[in-house]
Recover the amino acids of this structure.
């Protein structure tokens, strides 16, 4: 697991308020099925923006973005590249 993946998992654990431990999920597990709510998605988004100094675009604010660690990491990487 990359350091970047681990850091994102820690943010999900701290702000996603999942019903299960993030360590029990693989990177493609559905975070909504694990208990991620729309309110906690907003809290997670704000924490990610702060941590990575990015701003989620309107296009990236979809349920698919926050569906899994993998999908979220892909979007974060893309936004970081755009910001660079």
């Amino acid at each position: 697991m990359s350091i970047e993946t681990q850091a994102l998992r820690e943010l999900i654990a701290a702000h996603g308020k999942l019903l299960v431990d993030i360590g029990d999920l693989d990177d493609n597990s559905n975070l909504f099925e694990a208990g991620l709510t729309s309110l906690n998605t907003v809290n997670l988004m704000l924490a990610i923006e702060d941590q990575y100094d990015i701003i989620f675009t309107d296009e990236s604010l979809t349920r698919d973005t926050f569906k899994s660690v993998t999908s979220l990491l892909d979007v974060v990487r893309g936004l970081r590249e755009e910001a660079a």
